[in-house]
Amino acid sequence: MRIKWIIIASVVLSGCYKDRTNYYADDTRQGLTIFSNTGNNIFTCYVNGWPWRTVNRITGGFLSGSESELAIYKVPVSNTDTMLVIKWDGFLQAHPENFGSIALYLKIPSGFSSGDLDTFQGQRFSIDSSRGYFTADINGYPVESGTGEIYFNRANYSGAQGSASVGELSGILEAAFPDFTITQGRFDDQLTSLQVPF
Amino acid sequence: MRKGIFIFGLSILAACNSTAQIYLEPLTGYQTGVNRRPHFQQISTGLSAVWIAGRNYELSVRVQRNWGFAAHSVDSSFTTDPSLPLFAPAREVIVPTGWTFSLDHRFILKSQHPDRHFSILLFSGFSSQKIAVRYTGDAAHYTVLNPDATQKKFSLFGGTGMEYMKYLGPDRVFVQLTISSPPLNGVIKYPSSFSFMSPLSFLFGYSIHIKRKKHEN
After folding, report:
1. Which domains does chain B have, with CATH numbers?
2. Are B145 and A173 an interchain contact pair (Cβ–Cβ within 8 Å)?
3. What is the distance, to the nearest Å, from the Cα of residue A171 to the centroid of all Cα atoms in its chain?
4. Contact list, B139 vs chain A (CB under 8 Å)
5. DSSP state, residue A65
6. Tens-digit pLDDT profile for residues A46-89
7. Does B16 contact A at CB distance below 8 Å?
């Protein structure tokens, strides 16, 4: 009888725990996922040729919290300038225990709203010092800033509606840092108010 | 799967009546997938060994190879290289091939004409399908969006159909219209633009009389 209640309690408390990441391997690029725009909630790339990927997106149950591979937020840098930060948390696949991140800092007007993400859709940006920069915290390498290119295949956000998907962000990127390079980056994320809290 | 192979083998042994007439049937034809677009197309060639197990029933073992026509389409590919155009078409070539090994049941319908008849076909066995995907384009600089990938499946399958057969002396000619299932559990766990084929086949063949046992009437 006691075991039955333990099982029932476990099921109830674990609740709606769900892994919302889909990993579809790219047969032509070992260690990478395909370039997709269907909301697979993953970003993969090579760091100096070593495959790197984001953590899985987890929507938590009653006891376990949610975890997201992506966060998008604004950082004011002066009275007139604001940076939009698009940050992916992940790890080198050879060292899954050492977490790090890859982020894009992009200059935006101070009045930039979440709905303005739509203006990125279909755009390819060269990220140099005038427009912004990339940062990367990769296990085994110093934390560095670099330049690169990014293409947003899809970028849209229609406002916060709880944890339901209300936007999407997908594309490809490449970046060069003093001690390493990021190549073949491809990202495909659903956006909710958890990822876009502004 | 092992149990399926065992039952299949047992069925063949049970059907091998030593007093039966035996025919060999080379066959060929055309088939197309009907379950989902794109409708892949194939040319089929095969060989059946047929035992006449009764006045209205024949049993055969068939091996069939399916040769696919290449299906062409265009996907999108993109690059971050600012010196290149953002978009380039990625030409996709899909070639569906496969083979089947089946036990076929031929239920002959009553006919007023002794030299021709219709039959109902039921068959089951093993099916192997490979849908090979290849992209042509500048893979060094461009990344294909939502690409397809080569898929393979080997499993049980089944099917049914109709047949018209005409006697030519001791031999026979026939045409068949059949439909088969895709391989069992053939759900592709990948965001493919295609699925495994459920082929609608139009086949014709020649039935060559091989032997008649002396003690058979």
Report:
1. 2-70+98-127+157-212 (2.40.160.20)
2. no
3. 11
4. 28
5. P
6. 999 999 999 999 987 666 678 899 999 999 988 778 999 999 99
7. no
